[in-house]
Design brief:
The protein has about 425 residues and is α+β, with helices and mostly antiparallel strands. The chain has two domains: about 1-50 and about 270-420, no CATH class; about 60-230, no CATH class. It has helices at about 1-15, 15-55, 80-90, 125-130, 155-160, 200-205, 210-215, 235-250, 260-265, 265-305, 305-315, 320-355, 365-370, 385-410, 415-420, and strands at about 60, 95-110, 110-120, 135-140, 150, 165-175, 180-195, 205-210, 225-230, 255-260, 355, 380. Strand 6 (about 165-175) and strand 7 form a beta hairpin. The protein starts with a helix and ends with a helix.
């Protein structure tokens, strides 16, 4: 206890030096916490946007469709989907399910034409699976069987479209030997939506599934079945995926079930790369913090050389002198880590509530970021207890470890030479 008291007393004897060290440690750890929570927030909200507006939790395709999903093929369709839909909706964990058609196309207004991704939906069931209906900012939800569409806010601005306008949709009805047959159909714009996913706002067009089937001459066929569960838990999603796949295999249907993680593979690959970069940033911050602590403790050893010699002359063992400096570094680490966690938590809380807007960096930067992350112009943090706890432990450990060399150097001093030091 006397060694602990001595270590604590030494901290407050040199207030200026201690303040500088505490500031370096706390600010470094606070920035680390804010960086981690921002990265976690980007991942969390990106995944939420992908699930809520693009993939839901599970999708069922015709075998072979997934490998060509980026081309949106309309020749690999689900022929016997009604009976399967009844079985899917009876599962306890299923909140909603719908049949859909996804197809490439374009919208034409006058001499202007923009490519888009058309999505034929079941208006009755789609709100149970996606958040498109609740994202409507102008107009009304589409009606079953009508030639009506809803478009994203960005898409509407690009073509100068508004609710009630008539627009021509150009769609592919068939493709044989790379020869395409097109069909042009007029639709009324029923509503404009604005989701938190810029990719959907800029390029997706939604219409009743019957209108899509008629325009593309698909009959009753669809390209996918989309399923929403009552949980985002990966293990539960995988469990339901296996149940459905077994049910399909027993029915001898040539269908395959895919999870949102498989469908969003490109985004998850980017996220994994970002995690590696984050780890590099953490290592750099910890290295800088540890160098600051080592420098501070070495200065303490040099400034207190005569004091160390006096302690040795009075009978204090080398191991005890080492412990004094280790305790001193440990106290600095605990206080600096605690202060860093408080500052980091406050900063992360602010960013979780208000976020950080990318508009300040310019529209081009915002568009580039949106190409990688399905987020609008504001990023939000995701503050949890876990990064605070582990950052506190890590900061304390690094502080003690960084003190070990200066403490060992102090313990190895010759008492006679130390007493002669001025």
């Amino acid at each position: 206890m006397s060694l602990i008291k001595l270590g604590m007393r030494n901290i407050f004897r040199f207030k200026k030096r201690t303040f500088i060290t505490l500031s370096a440690v706390s600010i470094g750890l606070a920035l680390l916490i804010i960086g981690i929570t921002m990265m976690n927030g980007v991942d969390k909200h990106s995944i939420s946007n992908i699930i809520n507006s693009q993939t839901s939790h599970l999708k069922i395709f015709k075998k072979g469709y997934f490998e060509e999903k980026d081309e949106l093929p309309t020749d690999k369709v689900l022929n016997e989907s009604n009976m399967l839909m009844e079985k899917i909706r009876k599962l306890d964990s299923v909140v909603g399910a719908e049949r859909r058609i996804m197809f490439p196309g374009s919208l034409i207004k006058g001499s202007d034409e923009l490519p888009c991704i058309g999505v034929g939906i079941e208006p009755e069931f789609d709100p149970l699976v996606f958040n498109i209906k609740e994202s409507i900012i102008e107009g009304e939800w589409i009606e079953e069987g009508e030639y009506q569409i809803i478009i994203g806010k960005n898409f509407a601005e690009d073509l100068s479209l508004g609710v009630g306008d008539i627009v021509t949709a150009r769609v592919i009805t068939s493709r044989v030997d790379n020869q395409f047959t097109w069909n042009a159909v007029d639709f009324e714009i029923k509503a404009i939506f604005d989701t938190s996913n810029p990719n959907v706002n800029s390029g997706f067009v939604f219409l009743p599934i019957e209108a899509a089937q008629e325009a593309m001459s698909l009959g009753p066929d669809v390209t996918e079945i989309v399923i929403r569960l009552n949980t985002d838990d990966s293990e539960k999603i995988k469990e339901v995926q296996n149940i459905l796949q077994n049910e399909i295999d027993d029915s001898s249907l040539e269908y395959s079930v895919f999870s949102w993680e498989q469908l969003a593979g490109d985004f998850l690959a980017i996220s994994k790369m970002k995690t590696k970069n984050t780890s590099m940033m953490i290592m750099i911050m910890l290295f800088i913090a540890s160098m600051g602590i080592i420098n501070t403790m070495l200065m303490a050893v040099l400034e207190r050389t005569r004091e160390i010699g006096m302690m040795m002359a009075l009978g204090m063992k080398k191991s005890q002198i080492k412990k004094v400096f280790l305790f001193e570094g440990g106290f600095i680490g605990v206080l600096g880590s605690l202060l860093g966690c408080i500052l980091g938590a406050l900063g992360s809380w602010y960013l979780e509530v208000y976020g950080i807007s990318l508009r300040a960096f310019g529209e081009t930067y915002t568009e580039v970021v949106a190409a990688f992350y399905p987020l609008k112009d504001t990023f939000y943090a995701d503050l949890t207890f876990e990064p605070l706890f582990y950052t506190f432990l890590l900061g304390t450990f690094i502080s003690v470890a960084a003190t070990y060399y200066p403490a060992s150097r102090a313990a190895k001093m010759d008492p006679v030479e130390a007493l002669r030091h001025f």
